[in-house]
Amino acid sequence: MKEYQSLINHIQNRISLSEEEMHQFFSEFKITKIKKRQFIIQPDFVAKYRSYVVEGALRAYVVSDQGQEHTISFAIEDWWISDYNSYIYQQPATMFVVALEDAILLQIDFETETKLKNANPKFETFFRITAERTAAFFQRRIIMNLTSTAEERYDTFIENFPLIVKRVPQYALASYLGMSTEFLSKIRNNKLKKKS
Predict the structure, then answer these.
(1) pTM, whole model, 2 decimals?
(2) Is residue 195 part of a domain?
(3) Domain span holding position 67
(4) First-to-final CA distance of the chain
(5) InterPro entries of this UniProt entry (predicted)?
(6) Rounded to a whole number, what is the largest CA-CA distance in the chain?
(7) 39 in a domain, yes or no?
(8) Tens digit of pLDDT for each residue in 22-76?
(9) How many structural domains is the chain composed of?
């Protein structure tokens, strides 16, 4: 099925599976279609799934006691998304995860993932590599937020993720970069002036 092809490529870039192992792995994923603005995770409910994005764009965010939204992560094609603390520890979520576009996901639940990892060390290796890359990405992001100016954070983001910039709302990008929407507009306008 075409829905699985991008995940097949994603896996083959990380580990080598036989045809039988590939079938065993994929038979545990379910295809889920969601509409724009639909939530797949909400606070106080356990995050049941780890989701691989086949098509679409999603956003994970938290809301402060003051009602301010803080974007934690985005996910577009070939990325994973969940509230990982909730998913891994099977405790209530603290984040919202919402579709920014209509999306197609391949989802696996925690118990099934655990069963797969116990069944074959290659599956364990795949999920470990995924976790390691996620941890490294979040570390880089924290360091950048602590050591870079707002403009440097914006420049780095558009350089590394040009596709996301075009697909996510400005308020979501601003909150991801740790600035107000107005300040992001100011940075963008200054860059346009320098170009012209």
Answers:
(1) 0.92
(2) no
(3) 2-120
(4) 48
(5) cNMP-bd_dom (IPR000595), cNMP-bd_dom_sf (IPR018490), RmlC-like_jellyroll (IPR014710)
(6) 59
(7) yes
(8) 999 999 999 999 999 999 999 999 999 999 999 999 999 999 999 999 999 999 9
(9) 1
